[in-house]
Design a protein that fits this description.
With 276 residues, the protein is of the alpha/beta class. It has one domain: Vaccinia Virus protein VP39 (Rossmann fold, 3-Layer(aba) Sandwich). It contains 10 helices and 9 strands. Strands 5-4-3-6-7-9-8 form a 7-stranded mixed β-sheet, with helices on both faces. Helix 8 packs antiparallel against helix 9 and helix 9 packs across helix 10. The protein is globular and about 55 Å long. GO terms for molecular function: S-adenosylmethionine-dependent methyltransferase activity. This is Class I SAM-dependent methyltransferase. Keywords: Methyltransferase, Transferase.
Length: 276
C-alpha cells in the first residue's frame, strides 16, 4: 500500500498550511511499524515474521513482490536463504543491496512477472506474498505458481487489502488507485480464504489489522501531499492522536477493537499439504 501511494503521488504540491511551530513530530511511518509489531509482525523474540510464521536459518524463503524488502530483511537476519522476485528491477536491486548487511546464507534475485516464476518446483519452505494478489489479472494462476514452488509442508504468508479499508477509499482515493496496474479488485474475507483453499493450501489462520493506516490513507488523499514528504496538519494530528491512543492504559484493547472494524490488510497463514 505504501509503495503504491508513493508512486501515485510523486510530484504532488507541497502542503498549503506549513507547521506554525518547530516541534518534534511523530514519525507516521515509524508509528505504523510499531502498530504493525503490535499486530504480530516482526517478532524478534520468537523469530516470527508474522504470528504463526517462524523463519529459521535452515529455511529457504521466497518473497514474491518483495517491494522495499522490509519483510525479507527480517528473514535475512534470521540467517535463511532468501529468494526475491518482483517485476520492478530497481526494487529487486535495492532489496538485494539491503540484504547485504544480513547473515542470510544465500540470496537469489529474479526480475519477473511471475507468470511463470523462474524457480524450480518444491524449492521454498517459506513463501511470502503481501499486497500482490489484488494487482494480478489471474489470482488463481498466480497462487498456483506460489504453490508449485513450495516444498510439501511449506508455510505461506499471504496478505491483501481488507475490503473495509478499500471501501472507504472508493470515493476519496485518486482514480488510478483502483485501476490497472494498481488495485483491480477488492477481495472479501470469504473470497480470500476460498482463493487460498482452492489453490490447494490449508488455511491455518486468518486475521486483520491496520486501523491506523486505513485512517491515515483517508487523510492522505484529502491532504494532497507527496508521499515522500507527507507533512500536513491532518496527518500530523492523526499520528499524534494514534500514538496517544496506543500509550493509554487501554490502548491495546482499543486498537484491537478498531482493527476489527476497519482494517488495512487481511493476512492468511497457510500450509502446503505433505506429499502422499
Amino acid at each position: 500500500m505504501l509503495r503504491l501511494l508513493k508512486k501515485l503521488t510523486a510530484g504532488a504540491p507541497a502542503p498549503a498550511t506549513p507547521a506554525a511551530d518547530k516541534v518534534e513530530k511523530v514519525d507516521p511511518y515509524m508509528l505504523g511499524l510499531h502498530d504493525a509489531m503490535l499486530s504480530g509482525w516482526f517478532n524478534q523474540q520468537t523469530g516470527e515474521l508474522f504470528t504463526g510464521f517462524p523463519v529459521r536459518a535452515e529455511d529457504t524463503l521466497l518473497d514474491v513482490g518483495c517491494g522495499d524488502g522490509g519483510n525479507v530483511h527480517f528473514c535475512g537476519m534470521r540467517g535463511a536463504k532468501i529468494i526475491i522476485a518482483d517485476i520492478d528491477a530497481a526494487k529487486v536491486e535495492a532489496t538485494r543491496q539491503r540484504l547485504g548487511d544480513t547473515p542470510a546464507r544465500d540470496i537469489e534475485c529474479h526480475v519477473t512477472d511471475c507468470n511463470p516464476l523462474p524457480i524450480a518446483d518444491a524449492t521454498a519452505t517459506r513463501v511470502v506474498s503481501t499486497e500482490v494478489i489484488e494487482h494480478v489479472d489471474d489470482p488463481a494462476q498466480f497462487l498456483s505458481e506460489l504453490v508449485r514452488v513450495g516444498k510439501p509442508g511449506a508455510l505461506y504468508l499471504l496478505s491483501v487489502p481488507h475490503p473495509s479499508s478499500e471501501d472507504l477509499q472508493k470515493d476519496i482515493a485518486a482514480p488510478e488507485y483502483f485501476q490497472k496496474p494498481n488495485h483491480i479488485r477488492i477481495i472479501s474475507e470469504e473470497q480470500f480464504k476460498a482463493m487460498v483453499s482452492d489453490a490447494g493450501l490449508e488455511v491455518l489462520s486468518h486475521s486483520q489489522y491496520g486501523f491506523y493506516w486505513s485512517m491515515w490513507m483517508l487523510l492522505f488523499w484529502e491532504a494532497k501531499v507527496d508521499f515522500s514528504n507527507a507533512d500536513h496538519p491532518l496527518l500530523n494530528h492523526w499520528a499524534d492522536t494514534w500514538q496517544a491512543v496506543l500509550a493509554s492504559p487501554r490502548g491495546a484493547q482499543i486498537k484491537q477493537a478498531l482493527d476489527a472494524v476497519v482494517a488495512k490488510s487481511q493476512v492468511i497463514i497457510a500450509r502446503k499439504p505433505m506429499a502422499d
